[in-house]
Specification:
With about 200 residues, the protein is α+β, with helices and mostly antiparallel strands. The chain has one domain: 3-Layer(aba) Sandwich (Aminopeptidase), CATH 3.40.630. The protein is built from 8 helices and 7 strands.
């Protein structure tokens, strides 16, 4: 995988917007009125900015897949992050949806797994454009992300509302540690660092 640079931002936002256009969890967050694609694009822009500041953004070697990674323990509330949030509200969520989204986020944050001596690495988004799905790009990127998690000594976790993705992640050693119903089933998965592999 390659670390994304500023020149890759437009490609990444387009890729992620198309990849998550029909995602239940994403559609639950963005406002229902207006242009759906633009609303999702605003959400992806927010996620990009946060991960660029407090995590990392990666592309597969062929640039068909993208991953946004966040280190929650490093995230801070600053004037800049407040500005990003304001842009998200105005451009993607909608003022009338703010309380719902804040309540939802508080619940999701409370379910973060705590693993001794392994700070979390949140795989916020892993996306492949629909026309490039099943090409192996997403699988290759996930394998690289697992190696990266190992090198960082960080347990990797994620959330998904797509049932088939649960089986996909389980193949790579992820475990479901929580399921909740918020109008649809949201699955919480994680994979801890293997210290035997670290020593080797």
């Amino acid at each position: 995988m390659i670390k994304a640079g500023p020149k890759d931002k437009d490609l990444i936002l387009d890729l992620l917007t198309y990849a998550f256009e029909e995602n239940l969890s994403v559609k639950d967050v963005v406002k229902s009125r207006g242009n759906n694609w633009e609303n999702i694009y605003a959400l992806m822009n927010y996620a990009y900015n946060v991960c660029n500041a407090y995590g990392n953004i990666f592309l597969s070697e062929d640039k068909k897949a993208c991953a946004l990674v966040l280190f929650p323990d490093q995230k801070k509330n600053t004037i800049k992050t407040r500005f990003w949030e304001l842009k998200l509200v105005l451009g993607g969520i909608g003022v009338s949806n703010v309380n719902k989204v804040l309540t939802r986020q508080k619940l999701l944050d409370s379910i973060l797994p705590h693993i001794q001596d392994q700070p979390p690495m949140y795989l916020w988004l892993l996306g492949v454009k629909p026309e490039n799905q099943f090409s192996g790009a997403g699988t290759a990127l996930l394998k690289d992300l697992l190696e990266y998690s190992q090198e960082m000594g960080r347990a990797i976790y994620l959330r998904t509302s797509v049932d088939r993705n649960v089986d996909f992640y389980k193949k790579f050693g992820f475990q479901v540690y929580k399921k909740i119903d918020i109008g649809y089933q949201l699955n919480f998965l994680w994979k801890a660092v293997s210290f035997k592999q670290q020593i080797a």
